[in-house]
Amino acid sequence: MLLGGCAQPAKPPHYRIGFAQCSSKGPWRQAMQAGMERELSFHPDVQLRTLNSHDNSALQKQQIHELIESGIDLLIVSPYESAPVTPAVEEAYRRGIPVVLLDRRTASQAYTAFVGADNVEVGQTAARYAARLLRGHGKVLEVLGSPGSSATSGRHEGFSKALRDYPGLEIVSQVTGNWTESSLKPGLVDALKAHPEVSLIYAHNDGMARAAYLICQELGRADKVRIIGVDGLASPGEGIDLVQRGMLKASLLYSPGGEDAIRTALNILHKQPFKRENILGTMVIDSTNVLTMRQQTEKMVSQQQDIERQQGLMGHLEATYASQQHALYAALLSLLGALALGAFAWRSARKNRLINQQLALQNAENVKINHQLSAQNEEISSQRNQLEVMAERARIDTEAKLRFFTNFSHELRTPLTLILGPVEELLGNSAGFSSTQRHDLGLVRRNTQRLLQLVNQLLDFRKIEVGKMAVHATEGNLVSFVREIVDAFEKPARQRGVRLRFLAAEPVLLAWFDGNILDKVFFNLLSNALKFTPEHGQITISLQAADEGRALQVSVTDTGRGISEQDRAHIFEWFYQGDQGAVAKGSGMGLALAQGLVRLHQGRLSFSSQAGSGSTFTVRLPRELPASLRAEEQARPVVLSLDEPEPIEAELTDLAPAPAEAVSETLVLVIEDNAEVNDFLMRKLGASHRVQSAADGYTGFAMATDLIPDLIVCDVMMPGLGGLEVVARLRADWRTSHIPVILLTARGAPEQQVEGVQAGADLYLTKPFNPTFLLESVRTLLANRARQREHLRRELSVDAAGLTTQADQKFLADLTAVVEADLSKSNLSVEDVARSLGVSRMQLYRKVKAVLNTGVTDFIQGVRLTKARELLLDDALTIADIAYELGFSSPSYFTASFRARYQLTPSKFRALHASTAP
Hints:
The structure is a single chain. The protein starts with a helix and ends with a helix. Strands 2-1-3-4-5-11 form a 6-stranded parallel β-sheet, with helices on both faces. It has 31 helices and 24 strands. Helix 12 runs antiparallel to helix 13 and helix 21 runs parallel beside helix 22. By secondary structure, it is an alpha/beta fold.
């Protein structure tokens, strides 16, 4: 009984796991091994045997066979190459040994579970982050891993595939780095020299990314090229550390998966549920979350150290326990040999039992500590997931704010229309106003246009954010272009006593640039300079070549108060307003917009400033631009003035008001949901036309089909049926297909104007519009329509080639077919034709009048006479036969009608044709 009480408790099964590792080179593989050992520290009953093939597929295949023969319970394989090791893995699987593939797959489905990240997803995530970083435009250089590696092919495939969604991003070169830094430098140096336009490097691991940064630093391009790596390890000199030091813009987390592989293996061995495909997620580590990731990693390291200390203590206690067991056995043997020592043995046994109890308590405490550490690890994982959710939510919130700004800016254009329109009209007829009233009207106009400029800057800001601001560059003289903008500031500068100097190194400096975008840059820089330069100060604008003639540099220097130290770091941030002193507060958008526009030109905007001595802003632009940024034909840039921030306003306000005229019979239909704009349009158009109005698209379309107006003015943004759909329905309906349509909208982007024209609009006006320009546009469209109708009336026949729309052509063809089918009926009436076409008599009359400028009866008569010319060519028919066949009541009426139309009788027409026949 005493010996039986000392028997050892049954131990849990002892498992042996074999690990065929392809390589131990590099911190990522070392992190994988460390992760496996970290997880196994919780399971002392499991033995791990690792064999390293040093990137040799033949050796790895041999090592797998060796592990199989050694009697392992489970095999973990991280293949160097898929195909060569597949037979050995399949043999293990056939023998009933569970196989866990780690990081890379084999060429077979004969495995128990797979643990690893998706390299294609890593590449796609890198591409999306690069697109957001470069705002959808830039040149990219890709640094590849080893050729033939599944990681290399997957990361390249995902990156290239995702870049197809961003046509403004282009991979201009690729360099093979073989996962190491030493073999990268020659090829990367040559590629960067051959492609100076590269703005981002995507490296397949952080080691090559670190080498790329050092090479860029040697070439003086570290501040121009952004670098993205892959791995996101926390050790010194690796991804997280490089991002925190600013050497990398971001690193994509690529988990080594050591812990996950061991957890999956133990679930398999313990007959617990497990997933066959364990795809490890990835995330972007950049400046927004790198500090959190480092803190989480340091916390995990600290916890691991605590675990190791606890395990050391437990090992010490187990050694004590073993030592006491030996003492107990010796005491029992001594008891059997000498009863005299019984009392001593009893005391020793009691003491040992107390020690065993202490050891049991300590073991229980260790188990509790292990559970706590596991819970902490799960908490860390949950926090990381929460960080990813928070980052995505922040992105969605930012996008919602941008949409709000854009929609709000569009909404501002309608009230601006109601302000600028009447003001422009009053200024055009200001002869009876006093000088004070004219001054006040000019003040209203200037400030309304300044508000419009802010609205346009918000819209430009949104276009830049979503990559919709396109550059259409043409070759021109930058000196003359900048001089025109400087000239616009001469008068306000002179009024304030500020000296304005323009210094150009040469009279002609040619470059490729988009004047309609760059004028906003220089306008903002000069406006800021004039704003902050005190009276009797000086502003100097200098222009010269740079970078050995490959670039041009424009500098704007003022003698103002300078920029404070605290403002310098934020000067180009959107909506930032620093200490502006006594001058009026700005919007905080001008400099941020200017920087974004300069970047679109692949240039750079920088500044230098010293408190109390003024500031210098420098724009550096390349003289050559890629073909994708060049316009097909020369565009005429319109230079902005201080009082007229938009080119369209500068053109519209120059138009003189049209002289008053009597109200014509033309009917204009206004479709506008804003009651005030609707009333404003009716008053302006009602001075010279009959006007009807509708407050929504559905009512407007119904009124158009009923009234058949001569012209329609329609808003684009309306609830329910929008303006574009109204135009599409008008063009699809033959009753209204001929009506000219003018669209009014607050959406002024070029692609939106193209959308309106494609829908069938004749003119697309952006709010706020000039009333005089609108009236002139209406008059021109109606005059063009009248000329077309007159032409068709003179050429009245079945030929509809002169009509502008397919619906009009179809209408005339259907109308002609209906009339020709009943030509013999002398009593054919307008009601008969309208009934055959399925419309009312009035709708038919208005349509024919609008298209042909003639009545339905005249049209029927014209078809009969046209048909008569064909029948007169047949000598077998008498004139009387032709008259009755065409529905004329008598041959004499036919002869009179034919003579009135063609100035000769039917018999003379037949004789003339007979005399000219061959």
